[in-house]
Amino acid sequence: MSSLSMRPCGDFRTSYKQDNTIFETSTIRWITIISIIALCFAPLVVDGYFITLLIQISYLGIAALGLNILVGFTGQISLGHGAFFGFGAFASAWLNISFEIPVFLSIPLAGFFTMGVGMIFGMPAARIKGLYLAIATLAAQFIIQDFFARAEWFSGGSAGSMAESLNLFGFVFNTDKSFYYVALFSLVFMFIWGCNLMRSRDGRAFIAVRDHYLSAEIMGVNLNKYRLLSFGISSFYAGIGGALYAHYLGYVSAEGFTIFMSIQFLAMIIIGGLGSIKGTLMGVIFMVLLPEVLASIVGLMKMTDWGNIPMVVDGLSYIKEMAIGLAIIAFLIFEPEGLAHRWTQIKNYWKFYPFAY
Predict the structure, then answer these.
(1) C-alpha torsion angle, residues 205, 207, 209, 215 (rounded to 10)
(2) Domain-embedded: residue 270
């Protein structure tokens, strides 16, 4: 029998380790590596405006992944993620200015500070769930917002706080092109860490708590421990994302970390796909580009005869403001499993074409 006829047909996995690889196939692994290399050359070929969008996708993607670990993988809920994002931003700036800690150290320290705060507010998760937990995390949102407004020693109060640029071995990352590499490295590192976390014992415990907490408890999974740990990891990711946001802008104001930001983070993971790491990034990209697309539509409408009708232009402006809510509703109705599920269906269709039925 020839070697050609003995080649396996299909993707066979014979061990648990093979079933939990980060990349499903070697093709996906090489596509990912090539994509990351291509992104490294992005500042050389794309406009500065797109670099700004890529940086925004990076720090929001890190924070959104933390929320997906909590909501999508553990089955908890948080309506205060925007406040934890802000806490990480203020904490990094405060550590750098008050204690002269270098920025490259204050960013991870801010993540751990935020992790501690998140675990404090996550303690009710050991006793309550569902709507009651949502109300508790909503209270955390407003408590932390009030803390930002009153704690001038920490956040600068209503005046806000300055944040130094990242300085590493004498090189200052004070431009969009230079900070882009910091944001890209942080995004890749945190996503790889998130993928490995979900493959670990703790990650499997998170999923067990989500799918059937009674069965998980019978099997020896400590529900209180893993619910609290999930809040801590989620807050850590939010703190890292917030710290990057602060040192990129160079200034942090409490006005930006409202309940609206928390809803945005929820929209990202719902649209991308709950319980999907790649879906998180898809949702972030969708939410970052959505206002840009709507702004382009409004601009094109103003250049046509429709731009002379006030009702049309005003209506488009309102749609731009309501876009997040409309997107959530549309995905919950037509694609409740998010963009990640749709991508899997498209991929499977072409994989089995012409027998994809």
Answers:
(1) -80
(2) no
State how far the Cα of 42 lies from the Cα of 104, in Å rounded to an integer.
23
Residue 118 domain-assigned? yes
Place of tokens 């319980």: 275
Cβ pair 252, 88 in contact under 8 A:
no
Cα 186 from Cα 54, distance rounded (Å): 12
Q: How many angstroms separate the Cα of 305 from the Cα of each of 112, 308, 309, 314?
A: 55, 6, 8, 14
Task: Copy the structure tokens of residue 74.
Answer: 């553990």
Alpha-carbon distances of 109 from 119, 293, 338, rounded to whole Å: 15, 36, 33
Asked whether residue 160 is domain-assigned, the answer is yes
DSSP H stretches of helix in the chain: 16-19, 26-40, 42-45, 48-68, 81-99, 103-121, 131-150, 152-155, 176-199, 201-211, 213-218, 223-249, 259-272, 277-302, 310-334, 338-351
Number of domains in the chain: 1
Residue 147 lies in a domain: yes
Query: Whole-angstrom Cα distance, residue 69 to residue 307?
Result: 44
Distance between CA atoms of residues 277 and 266, nearest Å: 14
pTM: 0.91
* DSSP 8-class letter at 168: E
> Mean pLDDT of residues grouped by 10 in the chain (357 residues)?
51 67 80 92 90 96 96 93 96 95 96 95 82 90 94 90 90 93 96 92 92 88 92 96 96 91 93 93 93 77 66 62 80 88 83 67
Residue type (1 letter), 307: G
Residue carrying structure tokens 């994509």: 35
- For residues 246 and 163, the answer to whether their CB atoms sit within 8 Å is yes
Burial 255-286 (b: 16+ CB within 10 A, else e): eebbeebbbbbbbbbbbbbbbbbbbbbbbbbb
Cα distance between residue 280 and residue 339, in whole Å: 9
Q: How many CB atoms lie within 10 A of CB 212?
A: 13
Domain that holds residue 189: 26-258
